[in-house]
Specification:
This protein has 532 residues and is mainly alpha-helical. 67% of the residues lie in helices and 0% in strands. α6 packs across α16. The two termini are 39 Å apart. The N terminus and C terminus are likely disordered.
Length: 532
């Protein structure tokens, strides 16, 4: 019987596939519902520059490390770290990075698929002209009816299951016929559609207004909170700590230039985020409908309302959410691959059965997040729904912990000769910068991000009325969430979101037996930060 270290998990057949797969893994919902808001309120071009510096100095070295670990071992994160720790004679504690990364990937995928279901439903809503002349209240009602209605949660489950079936279908076809071939079509197709929509925005909107919001330097709006937001966004937007880079590194061909490809991925991720931001604010110029909006409110309420007056809005809104669906689809394929590869290496099971088992588990876990918005919305543990605890554990604990373990082990646990062999050819300056980034910069910065993320998230629960034990320790005085520093002061008259709660008070949705009950659409408070 073969040992688990001899299990073959496959590989890509073309060197460019690593680039396309990596772009698909990095360009997620954060680029769409967080970056435009952050750039618009944190100094425009200054925030973009700070964000790019954070990517290159902090997160790119960790991306290279995770991908190099996978490529060197030709295994996923669990067996790769296991083998490296044994070779280096290190403590078994370092091996925790492997299983923790798989758990993080599983949890992030579970709620990403829920968001994917909403996006698929919005393609249908756009095609049927549901947003024809909708105002903010009507758009809020559409979202509330789909997501928050306890009488229609089965419909929401159907969209969620349909999206997850798309992801499972791709994975079940194999590494080459499924993952490689699909990502080589999905990612370029999504980019072409996105840039096409940018062209529409440039001709139908006011491009200068979009450029002013995202790219013009505004020093008066940039401060320490802006730098903190740039660090947060740079860390969470690139899929670090979830095993994706290790498995893509393992799949990469021997002649793929890993470091150059990852640098191109970082630059492409930034370019796409800028294009999306400029596009959104160009269309919304003069209306102010996107001011201060992010998360659910930006993507599923403000954006459709903003696009409704555009010529051929039915086609445009459908195309927009089709592009968003392609983005979430690619991200979900990457996350699922990390878990499926681990399961195959662990059990030796055929790929088809591995995908079915993992996909079913992801679907069941996703129901916890899905029900948190409707039938379980009143059931809270320490003031938080199931979804909010899942995201907090994944984003505030698991992902930062994996990053710290990988960086610290790579910087201190490996010999310079071994790490040089793992990284491959690289300039001396890059090697030195990488080494000290792994040893000092990354562990400290990521630890600070994880602690701040968790502390602010718990403090927000206290502000929402939680009676948890930490609410009596003064943590409620922690500063506002780094990513949304102006949230408490932003007026919300347009969407009716009360600043102190997750309740939308301006909209009622009549759904079956709930015809007389007020329905609350998810607000930005439902997104602690973003791990997708």
């Amino acid at each position: 019987m073969s040992s688990k270290y001899q299990t073959s998990i496959g590989s890509f057949t073309r060197k460019s596939t690593f680039f396309w797969a990596s772009v698909g893994a990095t360009v997620g919902l954060a680029n769409l519902w967080q970056f435009p808001y952050l750039a618009s309120v944190h100094g425009g071009g200054l925030f973009v520059l700070a964000y790019l510096v954070c990517l290159l100095v902090v997160t790119l070295p960790l991306m290279v490390t995770e991908a190099a670990i996978g490529r060197h071992s030709r295994h996923g994160m669990v067996l790769a770290m296991d083998g490296l720790v044994k070779t280096a004679g290190g403590s078994p504690v370092w091996r925790l990075a492997g299983p923790l990364s798989i758990l993080a990937s599983f949890l992030v995928l579970s709620f990403t698929a829920v968001f994917g279901g909403i996006v698929v439903a919005y393609i249908f809503f756009g095609a049927t002209d549901s947003f024809g002349s909708a105002n903010t209240a009507e758009a809020t009602g559409i979202l509330a009816e789909l997501v928050s209605s306890s009488g229609r949660y089965r419909e929401f489950m159907g969209w969620h299951a349909f999206f997850l079936l798309l992801v499972v279908w791709v994975s079940a076809r194999g590494v080459v016929s499924g993952v490689e071939r699909s990502l080589r079509m999905i990612v370029p197709g999504g980019l072409v559609l996105m840039f096409g929509l940018f062209g529409v925005a440039a001709t139908q909107g006011q491009l200068a207004s979009g450029i002013d919001s995202i790219l013009v330097l505004r020093p008066a709006q940039f401060g320490l909170e802006s730098l903190q937001a740039a660090f947060f966004h740079a860390f969470f937007t690139l899929g670090l700590g979830v095993g994706v880079w290790a498995i893509f590194g393992a799949y990469s061909t021997s002649h793929t230039r890993l470091k150059r490809s990852l640098l191109a991925v970082v630059l492409m991720d930034t370019l796409i985020a800028i294009v999306v931001g400029v596009m959104m604010f160009s269309v919304a110029s003069g209306s102010g409908s996107l001011d201060g909006q992010h998360g659910f409110g930006l993507l599923f309420i403000s954006l459709p309302v903003t696009l409704a007056p555009v010529p051929f809005s039915q086609v445009v809104i459908t195309a927009v959410f089709l592009a968003v669906m392609l983005v979430v689809w690619a991200t979900s394929i990457a996350l699922l691959e990390s878990v499926v590869a681990w399961f195959r290496e662990w059990t030796g099971a055929p790929r088809s059965w591995s995908v079915i088992i993992v996909g079913t588990a992801v679907w069941l876990a996703g129901l916890g997040s899905l029900f948190s918005f409707n039938v379980w919305s009143e059931y809270r543990l320490a003031g938080a729904t199931t979804y909010r605890w899942i995201e907090l554990v994944a984003g505030g604990v698991l992902i930062p912990l994996v990053a710290i373990l990988v960086a610290t082990f790579a910087g201190w646990g490996l010999t310079k000769r071994y790490s040089a062999g793992m990284l491959g050819d690289a300039p001396v300056l890059f090697r030195k910068a990488w080494l000290w980034s792994m040893r000092l910069i990354l562990p400290l910065v990521v630890a600070w991000i994880g602690i701040q993320y968790t502390a602010v998230s718990l403090a927000n629960l206290c502000e929402n009325g939680s009676a948890a034990i930490w609410c009596s320790t003064g943590q409620s005085s922690v500063a506002e969430e780094p990513s949304v520093p102006e949230r408490e002061s932003d007026p919300k008259p347009e969407n009716g979101v009360d600043e102190g709660s997750n309740v939308t008070t301006s909209t009622k949705a009549s759904v079956g037996e709930d015809a007389n009950r007020e329905r609350a659409a998810p607000s930005e408070d439902d997104i602690l930060y973003h791990s997708v």
